[in-house]
Design the sequence.
């Protein structure tokens, strides 16, 4: 079994430990005897829609993100076609925003997005940052997804379903209790950095989505996640407010 | 005027009390005095012959202390915030102490404007701008922009800048007096990098820069393939670098001569600190022989690769606060050693940065190859550190998660090895230092006073 993973703009969209997710996906596949081939995809690269099982798109500093977004916009139709055909995708923070319909800046300009997620983003004043926990029912796990968010933009869903519901933290916009977006096997989220490190249940869910296109439903052999889940539980409890926000 | 006198008296009283109680006091006196007189520093700085500000991401404390030591050896009375208390309160505390002829002030890169709006500097030294705690300093480009605005307040200052850091050199564009320090290609220079990069975008064309070589992170010999932007010629350039177990040798070539330098401090990052401090001293006209002498004996301050001795053990305590710092520390301290016990203590309090995602951007590969006993992960984010190491390829059986500092250090000392290395984030530094001293360890650094030093 072989997994083809495309890492979009690794040299530009690499803010704050995002690349850890690619490492985690590779390791968790390899530990189960699944081969992984990681292909960096960058400016000007032409791509066949069927080539990848899983795509990863991180966030970047403003300037780097500007360079990548122009190219990503050109790749938009290819990316949408790939997702329509069942390719799994994980987009984080800035990458998530770029895949929405548009981004409205503080000065009122509207920057078009790829339009994969039925969602849009508006610039906000105060950055939403801190530890966050969300509930993602379809993972079928009692454990929450935990992470750290740090974003100025507020994202509003226009029909896209959220990745999960906020337990504590701000999520998409700090107002409606939603976090992230889903479309078919694509996931967008504000939980940035090495999101999958303390959420092996989400990592395996992504691997199953990715393998489905080529191999159908794949049973992943269990791994020893004692360290990951103990850390998930400890961090979750430490930042749980006395009375939950939602 | 009355307000200022009151503020100074109150600050000095608190400093005196801190001294009597033997309690830190590197920031509290200044903090209170600034509350009473927000413009306090403006008054305190008047009358100094030279005011030098040292800022940047990594290496501020070592550069500041080394420069202060050189200037003292040159016969000047120097005021400095020698213990890395680099927020405005710490700077004010230093200035509240005994006065001197020269002030060498370490200033936090994120709050530089708060100091330059009151303190006219003669020289501003910028060590480097590396990816740091994102939740405190935001993106590097934004940080560079904030520093640029802060410099406008002190337009007469000469800038001493790191030529190998394109983000830092962009601050010298169009500035009056600029001097650069840099490091020529070394046997350790790399044509490509495994590290996550920022600061590799041309400030003019906003397109990626190309590199002839990298020293570490985005420091190296860069050029823009589209416009004329490139690494400037360094007036103070390190050449012929030799890194050896007993210390580092290199030549500092400057307009008018060359110094042959030897330092007991390990690591290429300390070569940059020496280039910055020695370059500034040469610019100020200090005798070359004085610089050579001080560099040969200077040791970094508390927790900056500070060595402790406990029975037959040799324990190194090192502050790590960002991916470059952690990667370079491991490259320097974890390679070519005998079997070593490692302890990584990671906290996520405000002064550490709340977000520990940066651990995943560090190049941890030296740890994979090092002869070692189990790696102990400690601190509030012990689990995060352990997970990161697990996925980097360290066997889980070789990892121990012991969040409690005292328990973790006792576990470290129970290892039957002579070498131990403790890497910790900011809020763990004093904790581990105290725990070591309580267990009878002796530091090679003479304990500095808690008050700003004057000599």
Sequence:
């Amino acid at each position: 079994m072989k997994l083809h993973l495309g890492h979009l703009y690794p040299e530009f969209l690499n803010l704050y430990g995002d690349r850890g997710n690619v490492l985690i996906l590779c390791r968790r596949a390899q530990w189960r005897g699944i081969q992984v081939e990681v292909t960096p995809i960058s400016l000007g690269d032409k791509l066949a829609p069927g080539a990848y099982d899983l795509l990863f798109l991180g966030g970047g500093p403003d300037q780097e993100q500007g360079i990548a977004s122009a190219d990503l916009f050109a790749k938009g139709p290819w990316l949408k076609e790939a997702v329509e055909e069942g390719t799994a995708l994980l987009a984080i923070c800035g990458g998530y925003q770029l895949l929405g319909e548009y981004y409205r800046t503080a000065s009122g300009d509207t920057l078009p997005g790829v339009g994969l997620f039925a969602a849009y983003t508006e610039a906000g004043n105060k950055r939403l940052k801190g530890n966050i926990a969300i509930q993602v029912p379809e993972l079928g796990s009692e454990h929450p997804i935990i992470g750290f968010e740090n974003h100025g933009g507020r994202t509003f869903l226009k029909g896209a379903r959220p990745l999960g519901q906020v337990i504590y933290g701000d999520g998409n916009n700090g107002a409606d209790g939603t976090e992230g977006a889903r479309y078919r096997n694509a996931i967008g989220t504000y939980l940035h950095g090495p999101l999958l490190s303390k959420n092996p249940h989400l990592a395996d869910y992504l691997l199953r989505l990715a393998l489905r296109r080529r191999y159908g439903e794949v049973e992943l052999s269990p791994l020893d996640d004692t360290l990951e889940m103990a850390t998930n539980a400890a961090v979750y409890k430490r930042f749980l407010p006395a009375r939950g926000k939602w | 005027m009355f307000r200022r006198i009151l503020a100074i008296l109150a600050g000095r009283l608190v400093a005196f009390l801190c001294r009597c109680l033997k309690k830190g006091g590197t920031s509290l006196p200044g903090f209170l005095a600034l509350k009473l007189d927000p413009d306090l520093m403006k008054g305190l700085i008047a009358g100094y012959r030279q005011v030098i500000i040292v800022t940047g991401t990594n290496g501020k404390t070592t550069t500041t202390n080394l420069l202060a030591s050189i200037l003292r050896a040159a016969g000047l009375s120097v005021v400095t915030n020698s213990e890395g208390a680099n927020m405005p309160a710490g700077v004010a505390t230093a200035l509240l102490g005994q006065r001197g002829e020269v002030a060498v002030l370490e200033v936090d890169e994120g709050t530089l404007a708060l100091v330059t709006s009151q303190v006219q500097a003669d020289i501003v030294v910028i060590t480097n701008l590396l990816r740091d705690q994102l939740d405190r300093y935001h993106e590097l480009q934004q940080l560079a922009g904030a520093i640029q605005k802060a410099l406008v307040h002190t337009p007469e200052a000469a800038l001493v800048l790191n030529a190998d850091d394109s983000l830092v050199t962009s601050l010298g564009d169009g500035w009056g007096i600029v001097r650069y320090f840099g490091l020529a290609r070394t046997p350790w220079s790399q044509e490509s990098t495994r590290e996550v990069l920022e600061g590799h975008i041309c400030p003019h064309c906003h397109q990626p820069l190309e590199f002839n070589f990298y020293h570490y992170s985005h420091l190296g010999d860069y050029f823009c393939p589209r416009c004329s932007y490139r690494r400037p010629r360094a007036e103070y350039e390190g050449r012929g670098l030799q890194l050896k177990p007993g210390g580092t040798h290199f030549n500092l070539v400057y307009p008018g001569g060359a110094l042959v330098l030897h330092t007991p401090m390990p690591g290429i990052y300390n070569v940059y600190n020496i280039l910055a401090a020695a370059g500034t001293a040469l610019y100020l006209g200090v005798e070359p022989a004085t610089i050579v002498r001080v560099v040969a004996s200077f040791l970094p301050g508390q927790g900056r690769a500070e060595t402790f001795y406990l029975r037959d053990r040799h324990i190194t305590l090192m502050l790590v606060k960002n991916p470059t710092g952690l990667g370079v520390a491991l490259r320097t301290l974890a390679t070519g050693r005998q079997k070593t016990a490692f302890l990584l203590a990671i906290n996520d309090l405000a002064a550490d940065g709340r977000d520990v995602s940066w651990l995943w951007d560090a190049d941890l590969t030296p740890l994979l190859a090092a002869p070692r006993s189990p790696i102990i992960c400690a601190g509030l984010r012990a689990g995060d550190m352990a997970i990161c190491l697990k996925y980097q390829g360290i066997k889980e059986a070789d990892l121990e998660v012991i969040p409690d500092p005292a328990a973790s250090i006792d576990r470290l000392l129970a290892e039957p090895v002579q070498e131990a290395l403790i890497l910790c984030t900011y809020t763990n530094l004093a904790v581990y230092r105290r725990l070591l001293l309580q267990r009878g360890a002796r530091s090679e650094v003479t304990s500095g006073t808690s008050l700003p030093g004057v000599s």
Summary: The helical segments of chain A are 20-30, 62-84, 94-98, 200-215, 226-239.
